């Protein structure tokens, strides 16, 4: 960890806990700041806040009192999930108090080279692939962090110059950076998402583009060349752009020609040797190849991973084959595009399990991808909307259930040997489940119970 004096004796408010808030508060305390933590959850129900209190950190719980802004804070470190419309956040901005997210702290203390990955879909798969390839390569010592589950600043505390930090970044996190500068940045794709937080697609896209805001001429930005809109979005970057394309050959980037994935004209691996299914995953693979090749990774490490890597948990994850039916957990499909990608990855008949939080959108865009769906089982707030789409798509077998657990045995009853039973909700989980991981784990448990 770098020794920095930026925060010594400064009054800093950490707003919102969860894992990132706890890590940020502890780190700032170690760096000599006068830290106050404010979390909405009451103290007696808040073990994280209690732990910080034991460290000697001031803790205010149960509400977000606007009067806190009168205490002379010089900085606010905000939990990424708290919107900028929050009165405390909006008030701080009005007063000129800087508001950052925890990944900014991670960058400031990290001794390791940073590889940052963002995008609407494919972030986690791309992040994991890069990490796995670096692990398989001689001479590299990767650490994985960020939105993938491990708090970036916590990882950065133990990172050295011999490490490479592979960091998954959300738009929420990237809105709160100031100096954050990855040596290699990746934007997998940009589609409409999180409008309940960002308000407009433009604001959402600009948050994603922040990943390259501070990059310089000796840095790299890996982008999806099949999205003209994305190329326009990052036209301001100073970094060297490395494109990838699953649709056309590229001389200067990563693409596919004659069944072979190439990077800067060098043949890397036959597409037929890759075990991870789906056209969308081909894009993730190309982004990962580009990043690792820029880091000098040997082709044998890339091939070793791509010929064995079958996917990330909750992302078109193969769970089990029972009586000739294959079960896949794609609980991470929290939007329509992600569900489309999963549906388009299969040619077999599909029993689709879908539904979840209603964010106000319709699901008509899903219809072209329902061509192989023979039955749909719906649940959650969007059940009725999805049933209307199923009717338009000509799906005759449609059943509504209370939850994912009840959907699994019904899906099995409706299926035949050779069918795929796919949980790909096209919705966030928060109407019924705390996270998409919880939803996916419940699906997996229900599948195992069938045995």
Automatic annotation (TrEMBL):
It is an enzyme of class 6 (ligase). GO terms for molecular function: ATP binding; UDP-N-acetylmuramoylalanine-D-glutamate ligase activity. The keyword Coiled coil does not apply. ATP binds at residues 119-125. Residues 314-427 form the Mur ligase C-terminal domain. Keywords: ATP-binding, Cell cycle, Cell division, Cell shape, Cell wall biogenesis/degradation, Cytoplasm, Ligase, Nucleotide-binding, Peptidoglycan synthesis. It is found in: Cytoplasm. One of its GO terms (biological process) is cell wall organization. Its main location: cytoplasm. Pfam families: Mur_ligase_C, Mur_ligase_M, MurD-like_N. Its EC number is 6.3.2.9. GO terms for cellular component: cytoplasm. InterPro entries: Mur-like_cat_sf, Mur_ligase_C, Mur_ligase_C_dom_sf, Mur_ligase_cen, MurD. Residues 117-291 form the Mur ligase central domain. It catalyses: UDP-N-acetyl-alpha-D-muramoyl-L-alanine + D-glutamate + ATP = UDP-N-acetyl-alpha-D-muramoyl-L-alanyl-D-glutamate + ADP + phosphate + H(+). Pathway: Cell wall biogenesis; peptidoglycan biosynthesis. Belongs to the MurCDEF family. HAMAP family: MurD (MF_00639). NCBIfam families: murD (TIGR01087). Cell wall formation. Catalyzes the addition of glutamate to the nucleotide precursor UDP-N-acetylmuramoyl-L-alanine (UMA). This is UDP-N-acetylmuramoylalanine--D-glutamate ligase. It comes from Heyndrickxia oleronia.
């Amino acid at each position: 960890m770098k020794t920095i004096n930026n925060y010594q004796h400064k009054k800093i408010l950490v707003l919102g806990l969860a894992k990132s808030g706890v890590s940020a508060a502890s780190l700032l305390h170690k760096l000599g700041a006068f830290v106050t933590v404010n979390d909405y959850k009451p103290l007696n129900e808040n073990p994280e806040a209690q732990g910080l209190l034991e460290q000697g950190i001031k803790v205010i719980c149960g509400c977000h009192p606007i009067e806190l802004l009168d205490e002379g804070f010089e900085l606010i470190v905000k939990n990424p999930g708290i919107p900028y419309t929050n009165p405390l956040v909006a008030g701080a901005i009005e007063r000129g108090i800087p508001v950052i997210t925890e990944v900014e702290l991670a960058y400031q203390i990290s001794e390791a080279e940073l590889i940052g990955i963002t995008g609407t879909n494919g972030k986690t798969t791309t992040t994991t692939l890069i990490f796995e390839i670096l692990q398989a390569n001689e001479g590299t010592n990767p650490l994985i962090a960020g939105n993938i589950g491990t708090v970036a600043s916590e990882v950065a505390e133990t990172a050295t110059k011999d490490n490479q930090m592979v960091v998954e970044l959300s738009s929420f996190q990237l809105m709160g950076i100031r100096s954050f500068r990855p040596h290699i940045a990746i934007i997998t794709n940009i589609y409409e998402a999180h409008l309940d937080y960002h308000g407009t697609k433009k604001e959402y896209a600009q948050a994603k583009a922040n990943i390259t805001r501070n990059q310089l001429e000796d840095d790299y930005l890996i982008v999806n060349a099949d999205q003209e809109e994305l190329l326009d979005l990052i036209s301001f970057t100073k970094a060297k752009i490395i494109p990838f394309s699953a649709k056309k050959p590229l001389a200067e980037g990563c693409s596919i020609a004659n069944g072979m994935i190439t990077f800067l004209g060098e043949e890397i691996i036959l597409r037929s040797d890759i075990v991870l299914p789906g056209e969308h995953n081909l894009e993730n693979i190309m982004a990962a190849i580009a990043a690792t090749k820029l880091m000098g990774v040997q082709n044998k490490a890339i091939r070793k991973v791509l010929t064995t890597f079958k996917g990330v948990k909750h992302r078109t994850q193969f769970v089990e084959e029972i009586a000739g039916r294959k079960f896949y957990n794609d609980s991470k499909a929290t939007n329509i595009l992600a569900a489309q990608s999963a549906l388009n990855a299969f040619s077999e008949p599909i029993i689709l399990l879908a539904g979840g939080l209603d964010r106000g959108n319709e699901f008509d865009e899903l219809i072209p991808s329902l061509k192989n769906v023979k039955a749909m089982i719906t649940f959650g707030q969007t059940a009725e909307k999805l049933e209307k789409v199923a009717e338009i798509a000509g799906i005759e077998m449609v059943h509504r259930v209370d939850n994912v657990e009840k959907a699994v045995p019904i899906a099995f009853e409706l299926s035949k040997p050779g069918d795929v039973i796919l949980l790909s909700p096209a919705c966030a989980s928060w109407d019924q489940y705390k996270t998409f991981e919880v939803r996916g784990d419940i699906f997996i448990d229900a599948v195992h119970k069938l045995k």
